[in-house]
Amino acid sequence: MTQHDASLDAVLAHIDSNFNASLDRLDALVRFKSISTDPAYKDECQKAADWLAAELNGIGITTQVHPTPGHPMVVGHDSDTSDKPGPHVLFYGHYDVQPVDPLELWSADPFEPAIVERDGVKMMFGRGTSDDKGQLLTFVEACRAYKEVLGALPVALSLLFEGEEESGSPSLLPFLNANKKELSKDLALVCDTTMFNADTPAITTMLRGLVGEEITITAANRDLHSGMYGGPAANPIRILAKILASLHDDEGRVLIPDFYDGVSELTPEVKAQWDALPFDDKAFLADVDLSVPAGESGYSVYEQINARPTCEFNGITGGYTGDGFKTVIASKASVKISCRLVGQQDPDKIRENLRAFVKALVPADCSVEFSEHGASPAHSLSPDFPPLKQGAKALKDEWGKEAIQMGMGGSIPIVGEFKSILDMDSMLIGFALDDDNIHSPNEKYNLTSYHKGIRSWARVLAALAE
Amino acid sequence: MTQHDASLDAVLAHIDSNFNASLDRLDALVRFKSISTDPAYKDECQKAADWLAAELNGIGITTQVHPTPGHPMVVGHDSDTSDKPGPHVLFYGHYDVQPVDPLELWSADPFEPAIVERDGVKMMFGRGTSDDKGQLLTFVEACRAYKEVLGALPVALSLLFEGEEESGSPSLLPFLNANKKELSKDLALVCDTTMFNADTPAITTMLRGLVGEEITITAANRDLHSGMYGGPAANPIRILAKILASLHDDEGRVLIPDFYDGVSELTPEVKAQWDALPFDDKAFLADVDLSVPAGESGYSVYEQINARPTCEFNGITGGYTGDGFKTVIASKASVKISCRLVGQQDPDKIRENLRAFVKALVPADCSVEFSEHGASPAHSLSPDFPPLKQGAKALKDEWGKEAIQMGMGGSIPIVGEFKSILDMDSMLIGFALDDDNIHSPNEKYNLTSYHKGIRSWARVLAALAE
């Protein structure tokens, strides 16, 4: 047993023997009604931020609460500035929560956390138990254990907690830009993701990026009567339908030129891992009453969601859409399109190619307008990224199972912002489960997620120092 | 000069010498604010109906005002029941008018008719001067001239005036059904259409029919997040776009199976007449900022509107259509489609074939719902229909120019109802002009339209008796 192993064992033992105190702290944090989107709870957000700062200061992490035009940012730096091995880590989480309505669907008060045992599994119910109060405390409690047992953390550490994640993070970008130097570290750790399932740890290594675009076709200069003009007058809905129908082939591939530039196939290792996953394509689709995978043929449903790009139509409107009928030929029709991106796909290039593709299909006497709705590249960690290997090993040590390198179909904006503003890669490790009911009534966090989550972070911090 | 000709000449001379009195009667009728859609004007509708009945009774046409749940019907029958040659005619018009807002765009009170001369053309301004009070009085005044000069009409005559044409005619169908026997005559004359232009008379011999259909595609059982489901989940907007894009070929032809069954080409006579029309395709489209005819290639714009069927998309909606962006995959998307029909196209058959066409393109795990929004066959008079030949000759005699056999892209519901309920063909002759501003501020009727309109009907009635 090395020195390192012995220290880690002592930390893990301390986590186990002090778990009830950890639970009490989660209970305390959940009681703050820090609903960021509702101004009525502004004070509660402030109190949650103050509580976190006090906890961190209490364990020797110098922490300040920074006011913003919205809810405060909590920023801490380990007061121990001795030289440490491994990367300087910035841990990110958020202390705000989603609203609780419809309240009548909760079996108990969302802000009176209660521990309940169901089918032999203990879980704490309450808004934010999982997203993200429980998750962020897994990390804080691991740090506490290090401080209390060894008096020091294995790596240099800073922390950033925001209070607006559930309401669009309006203060985040200005704050990151204003505090680049203070916040830009070697590696971000983000704890806002799930395990693959209750037994299987995961590191989310792929997040799809996004290009959002709105396209409006204008034909005649006003709405026309389809009796008087039907036939010779260009119909913008028909033009738009032709364009949209041209964007995919029959195999589900996207036909925007050069769309697949920068899309890589999975590595054989990840492919093997995914093929072995107990992910049931049929059950996944059946849950929403579907059965025929609509993505690119040749890829599993899990791959279609996590590793393949898409071009989706999120909204369409044109002409008369009320009750009954109106024989109108609309002047305009529009569609909102979003492309989910993977690998090295270039959002700007894709937007440009999409626009050119559309323009070429618009008749000479009609016009098209485009408006941009966001662009973010995909996030993907190289399998050779050292922290990824270290994190994966730590998780395997804790859970006894290989950590899955997961994809996530959606995006986590903070990951893109850490990259673009702070030039910092993010490693996403979380212990939430798909059945945690985040954003829904009866949100919960399994005590195993919390307990083994704390232990996992203790191991990850040790591994990063190796 | 035959006896007939001499009688007609006397009637025409009487019309000319009494034209000022005819104008006074139009003035009187326009002053009733018979806006049928606004309950505030219920009394004014009643008064207009009563006035018409009194006028008709005054010239020996026994007329009654029939109450309905809405505004009254005016029904008259010539009290002279001696045997007459030619068809028993039912003349149809409406005494109600459109609302007048925006009032500030009128140069004078819409219900204080004023005669104004512009560029040497005299016209009467006022709501209803053209649509349909001026038009219906052209016929009534022709009858008056016959009665005053000859004491008798050339043909057996009944009249029907309704007061709800501008508000959807809710009482008309029940009234026609309840009075089939009284109203079913040999031929309906309808005076709610235009001339080709100010010099050129016209008989509208083709009205397009309509099939209205709403199609809703359902994919997943709820709206989905495009991050979590984008790729494998069927997108109903994409499915709908594929369907709509499949409904026309690149030549603008409709691809619903058997769609063109019952569509005839124009007769050489009508084709020659239309080819010679001073109808400017470019100007017609330029008026609405278009320039490329979007209908079936191989047909002029005038033919595309009047003699060719269409399949138009009148409204489409699905997913998020508000401001900004939402990365949603909708559960449902829907479209309102209307087909304009010509010739002998069968509305029911077309609906059936459209539905089958759509169903075949819906993926196995998605569903489609259809809802019906009306069906009416096209109206077309055979070139050999005797009253058409007689009417055309009468109009030529009056205007010195061949009457154009016009098409009209829209439908006039009464024509379909006369056919389906009363088994009666309609001949549509009117003296309105495209610049009459019907339904708009500053509606007007040229005094030439009114004067020569009265003379035209005198000639048509004589011709029908031949």
UniProtKB/TrEMBL annotation, chains A, B:
<dbReference type="InterPro" id="IPR002933">
    <property type="entry name" value="Peptidase_M20"/>
</dbReference>
<dbReference type="InterPro" id="IPR051458">
    <property type="entry name" value="Cyt/Met_Dipeptidase"/>
</dbReference>
<feature type="domain" description="Peptidase M20 dimerisation">
    <location>
        <begin position="207"/>
        <end position="364"/>
    </location>
</feature>
<dbReference type="InterPro" id="IPR011650">
    <property type="entry name" value="Peptidase_M20_dimer"/>
</dbReference>
<dbReference type="GO" id="GO:0006508">
    <property type="term" value="P:proteolysis"/>
</dbReference>
<dbReference type="Pfam" id="PF01546">
    <property type="entry name" value="Peptidase_M20"/>
</dbReference>
<dbReference type="GO" id="GO:0046872">
    <property type="term" value="F:metal ion binding"/>
</dbReference>
<keyword id="KW-0645">Protease</keyword>
<keyword id="KW-0479">Metal-binding</keyword>
<protein>
    <submittedName>
        <fullName>Dipeptidase</fullName>
    </submittedName>
</protein>
<dbReference type="GO" id="GO:0008233">
    <property type="term" value="F:peptidase activity"/>
</dbReference>
<dbReference type="Pfam" id="PF07687">
    <property type="entry name" value="M20_dimer"/>
</dbReference>
<keyword id="KW-0378">Hydrolase</keyword>
